[in-house]
Amino acid sequence: MRELVYYAAVSLDGRIAAPDGAFDAFPIEGDHIDAINAEWADTVPGPLYDALGLTAPRGRFSTVLMGWNTFAAGLPLTDDPYPHLEQIVFSRTRTAADVGAGVRLTADDPRGVVADLKAQDGADIWLCGGGVLAAQLRDQIDRLVLKVNPVVFGDGLPLFAGGYAPDVFVRERSRAFDSGVVMNEYRRA
């Protein structure tokens, strides 16, 4: 069965972006980037993958899920960020004219969409963000992969923007990089 994997960069204080949605405070150079490009190539946007001349195999994920704000962060560069994946963007206010041809925009309940996706054949499902969508899908997340960055935001968009409801995850792997980034992988207990 396919798993829903929330793979995201996060600050030391649990923020995935600044209050305005910017995420440029996260370091974009260092040995952690080499590991991402080699081991998590599906998460590198198509235009960047091509521009960097990457050849790392893809196939860890076959679908990416995004809330509108996460998708919109890339709009200055492309309206089709992950052409190698089935792309699903959740919004109740946008129309198909707001996304590229390779992107499915839906106002459907994310929980039902994920249940349907999990029942289909394919590689895992990447929950790219944001925090509101992650909060809606929290009980369906099978794995968390958090790139913990050595920066404190103080304020901003949280990893999960929802109410208090503890869920237990078990750490499977932790990998520290010279850049200061620590990649932690957890599985639902």
From TrEMBL:
Segment forming the signal sequence:
none
Q: Which superkingdom is the protein from?
A: Bacteria
Domain named Bacterial bifunctional deaminase-reductase C-terminal: which ranges?
Answer: 4-181
Gene3D superfamilies recorded for this chain? Dihydrofolate Reductase, subunit A
Q: Which PANTHER family match?
A: 2,5-DIAMINO-6-RIBOSYLAMINO-4(3H)-PYRIMIDINONE 5'-PHOSPHATE REDUCTASE, DIHYDROFOLATE REDUCTASE FAMILY PROTEIN (AFU_ORTHOLOGUE AFUA_8G06820)
Give the protein name, as stated in the record: Dihydrofolate reductase family protein
Q: Which organism is it from?
A: Microbacterium arthrosphaerae
